[in-house]
Write a structure and sequence with these properties.
heme, Class I cytochrome c, signal, electron transfer activity, 5 helices, Cytochrome Bc1 Complex, Chain D, domain 2, about 65% helix, iron
C-alpha cells in the first residue's frame, strides 16, 4: 500500500514538472522581444515580475484585437485562454 502511495506521489510530481516545462516552452516564444525569462532588452517591454492579471488582460486584448499590435495579436491567437493565463503566471513569477 505504501508503495502505491509513493508511486502516485512520484507520478504527480513528474506530471507537475512536465507542466512547468511546457509553460517554459510556450514562454520561450516571447524571448526574442521580451528577453529570456521576461527581462527585456532596451526598447521592449519587460514581463518579469509584472502583475499576472495585468499580463492576462493585455494578452486577451491582443488576442481579441482590442489592443493594436504588429505581432502580438497573431502570437496570442496561437494559445488558448488557459495557456495565456499560464504564460502570464510564469512571467509574473520571474524576478525583475
Amino acid at each position: 500500500m505504501k508503495w502505491l502511495a509513493a508511486g502516485a506521489l512520484c507520478a504527480a510530481a513528474v506530471g507537475a514538472q512536465a507542466q512547468v516545462d511546457q509553460v517554459r516552452v510556450w514562454a520561450s516564444a516571447c524571448a526574442n522581444c521580451h528577453g529570456t525569462d521576461g527581462r527585456a532588452l532596451q526598447g521592449n517591454e519587460p514581463l518579469a515580475g509584472k502583475d499576472k492579471d495585468e499580463l492576462v488582460q493585455k494578452l486577451m486584448d491582443f488576442k481579441t484585437g482590442r489592443k493594436p499590435a504588429t505581432l502580438m495579436h497573431q502570437i496570442s491567437k496561437g494559445y488558448s485562454d488557459e495557456q495565456l493565463q499560464q504564460i502570464a503566471a510564469y512571467f509574473a513569477a520571474q524576478k525583475k
